């Protein structure tokens, strides 16, 4: 379950990076609409639903230790950012 959480975090981070780049092309590509740019880069509903489902499964499997959950999620975020920076994705 933690692998799926990490994948969703990675997808959200990647979409966020794409959105940051698309801001410079807002007028030309998206007719000045921030919403269109966001939808083109990050499928918010899809990723939010998958992140919620995989996060819930992860919490259920973890057994209730909140500090351990936080540490795992921080490490998953760090690993995904590292993969993006190194171009491994």
TrEMBL record:
UniProt keyword terms in alphabetical order: Membrane, Transmembrane, Transmembrane helix
Residues spanning the membrane: 44-63, 69-88
Domain of life of the native organism: Eukaryota
InterPro entries according to UniProt: STING (IPR029158), STING_TM (IPR055434)
Domain STING transmembrane stretches: 2-88
Keyword check for Transcription: no
GO cellular component terms, semicolon-separated: autophagosome; endoplasmic reticulum membrane
Pfam family, one: STING_TM
Protein name in UniProt: STING protein
Native source organism of the sequence: Eudromia elegans (Elegant crested-tinamou)
């Amino acid at each position: 379950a933690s692998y799926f959480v990490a994948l969703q975090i990675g997808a959200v981070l990647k979409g966020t990076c794409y959105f940051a780049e698309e801001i410079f092309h807002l007028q030309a590509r998206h007719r000045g609409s921030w919403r269109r740019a966001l939808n083109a880069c990050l499928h918010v509903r899809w990723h939010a639903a998958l992140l919620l489902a995989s996060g819930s499964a992860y919490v259920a499997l973890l057994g209730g230790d909140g500090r351990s959950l936080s540490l795992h999620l921080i490490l998953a975020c760090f690993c995904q950012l590292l993969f993006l920076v190194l171009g491994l994705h």
